[in-house]
Fold:
Amino acid sequence: IAIQGFYMICSVVIKATTCSTTEIVASHLRWNTHDDATQVTFLTQVGEGFRLHPEISDQVSFSLYDMLDKKHCVPPASIFGNFDLVLCRNLLIYFNTRYQETIFAKLHRALAKNGCLILGEAEAPTITYQRYFKRQLDFSPIYWKG
Structure:
């Protein structure tokens, strides 16, 4: 990235977690997405789905993590959390408010100050955590940690 004649070296680390070993294998091999994904240059069509190019998938660290695990506040593979971006799409809709509170406590702790949280369209922070996550646009499930 060029910034006024200087170059800044950026390091990107992508951590992907799931609570199922089957999902880890499937997500590592293939992404099923919308039809317009063929326009994205880092995907190759494989049957009815798409596969990430190796230069992207090789940067992703896949691991197991249960968001309701009481022993860990963040995935053990990430050690401390402090993420700039967390995508937690279409997970919360499967849990009642009590479990959502547990998940939001972990999301809050895992995100860096001013970190970005992206939820699914039908999801929003619980009443307790609305003061910690500020929605950026009325029509978008993108929140900043305040």
